[in-house]
Amino acid sequence: METQTKGLTLNDLPGVVTRIVNETPIVDLHTHLYSEQFGEIGLWGIDELINYHYLIAELFRYSSITYQEFWSMDRTRQADAIWQALFLENSPLSEATRGIVTALQALGLDTAKPDLKTYRDFFRGQNRRDYTDKVFRLSNVKEVVMTNDPFDPVERAVWLSKPSIDPRFKAVLRLDPLLLKWTETAPRLSAWGYSVDAQPGIKAVGEVRRFLEDWVRLMRPVYMAVSLPPDFRYSDQSPRSRLLTECVLPVCREHGLPFSMMIGVRKLVNRELRLAGDSLGPADMSVVEQICAEFPENRFLVSMLSRENQHGLCVAARKFRNLLPFGCWWFMNNPSLVEEITRERLELLGTSFIPQHSDARVLDQLLYKWPHSRSVIARVLIDKYSDLAHTGWWLSETIIRRDVRRLFADNFNEWISQITP
Ligand code: FIX
Ligand code: ZN
Predict the structure, then answer these.
(1) Tens of pLDDT along 39-86?
(2) Is residue 116 included in any domain, yes or no?
(3) Residue 78: CB within 6 Å of ligand 1?
(4) Protein residue closest via CA to atom 3 of ligand 1
(5) What is the pLDDT of residue 201?
(6) Ligand 1 pocket test, candidate residues 227, 260, 301, most atoms within 8 A of CB
(7) In terms of domains, do 311 and 248 share one?
(8) Is the four-CA dihedral 104, 109, 113, 119 of positive or negative sign?
(9) Which is it for the CA torsion 32, 36, 38, 40, positive or negative?
C-alpha cells in the first residue's frame, strides 16, 4: 500500500479521472486495420473515412439513390454522395458521422467551414508512415490488434512473404471461413495440401490442426477469433462444432492462445448493402456458459452484439474466470449504450473486463472512436469513484492510474501473456 498521503477529495475526482483516462495508452484488441506491409487493404484518409460501411447504411436512409447507382460509382463519387446527404443536407448527429468531424478536428482541420476539397488536399499531403505515427500519437493508442484472414488471397500472399510487421500491429488468426463456411473452405484446404473432405472426419481433424499450427507459426497471433450467429451452438455434430472443439480449442490450449467469440451477428439481412448489410439478434448465454465450463483450460474473449445479452455476459463472467468480456461491439458502440454497458460491467465485475475496442476499419477512425469512448468511460468512472469516496475509502492518483491501466491494457496483456511459442 503506498504511503498514506492526502487522499483525493470528491472535488478532485472529475479532473483527475478524466486526465488519467485520457493519458492512459490503449491496447485496442479488435480492429480491421493493417500495417503498411499489407498495402492497399490498409485503409486510411478522408474518402475511406466517409465510405465506412456505417455511413453507407445511413446514406440510403436519406438519399433516393439506388443501390446499383451507388455501387457503380468510384470511391470518390461515393464519398461525395455520402458527404452531401449526411453532412451538408443534414447534421452529422449520428455516432458515425459525428466521428468524422471529431477526427477532422483532431487533425487541426477547420470543421466550422466544412469543405471536402480542402480536406482531400490535406490528406493528399500526408504519407502513410508519418501519418500512421501521427494517428497513434494523437489517439494515444499503443497497439492495435488486426483481424487476419488466412483465406483472403491478398493477406495470404503477404503472410507467405514473411513480412516484418510494424510492431504496433498485432496479428489475430480469424477463422470465419473455416468455421462458418466449411463446404467452400474444405476444397481450398485440399488445394493447399491439407487432405480434408466435405464432412470433417478423423483424418480431416488432424489436417485442420496442422493448418492451424502452420498459421500460428506464420502469423504469431495473440489470439484466434470467429464471429458467430445468435443461434450459435457447438454440441451438435456440425462441421463447425467438430472443428471448434476438436481443432481450434485444442490448438489454442497447446499454444496458450485465447479464443475470441463475437456472437450475435446475422449476416446480410440486406444483401444490397454488402458489408453494411449485417444485423443482429439475441443469443443464448447458456451456450457461452457451457463452453466455458466444458473447456476450463481455454481462455475466452467474448463480445455480444445484442443489447439484451450484455447483462447476461456480465453474469456469465462472474461464474467463469476463463471468460473475459470485451468491448461495445458495432451497434453497441454508441455513447448511450457504452455508458449503460460500462456501468453494469463495473457494478458486476469491478475492473475485471475490457471496456472497449474500436473495431476500426480505417486508421483515422482511432481519432474519434477512442476519444468518444474515453469520455464516456471517464464519466462512468467518476461516478463510481465518487460513490466509493462517499464511503470514506482512500483514493489516490496512483490507485486510479492502476485501475485505468488495467481496463485499457493490462487485462488484455495478462490474458495473452501465457502464449507459448
Ligand atoms: O466480425 C467482425 O469483426 C465485425 O466487427 C465486422 O464484420 C463488422 O463489419 C464491423 O466492422 C463492425 O464494426
Ligand atoms: Zn470487427
Answers:
(1) 999 999 999 999 999 999 999 999 999 999 999 999 999 999 999 999
(2) yes
(3) no
(4) 227
(5) 79
(6) 227
(7) yes
(8) negative
(9) positive
Is the CB of residue 151 below 6 angstroms from any atom belonging to ligand 1?
no
Say how many domains are in the chain.
2
361 lines ligand 1 (CB under 6 A): yes
Residue 278 CA, closest ligand 1 atom number: 9
Predicted pLDDT of residue 4: 54
Residues around the ion ligand 2 (C-beta < 5 A): 359
Domain range for residue 194?
A: 172-325
> Model pTM?
0.97
Nearest CA to ligand 1 atom 11: 359
Residue 252 Rama label (left phi>0; alpha psi -120 to 50; beta): alpha
One domain, residues 201 and 317? yes
pLDDT tens figures, 320-375:
999 999 999 999 999 999 999 999 999 999 999 999 999 999 999 999 999 999 99
Question: What CATH number is attached to the domain comprising 317?
Answer: 3.20.20.140
Amino acid sitting at position 22: N
**pLDDT for the residue numbered 327:** 98
Summarize pLDDT for 222-235 with one digit per residue, the tens. Answer: 999 999 999 999 98
Residue with cell 461515393: 78
Q: What's the CA dihedral at 304, 306, 309, 310 to 10 degrees?
A: 70
User: Ligand 1 centre from 359 Cα, in Å?
Assistant: 7
Give yes or no for a contact between 22 and 382, defined as CB atoms under 8 angstroms apart: no
14-to-51, 379, 385, 388 alpha-carbon distances in Å = 36, 8, 9, 13
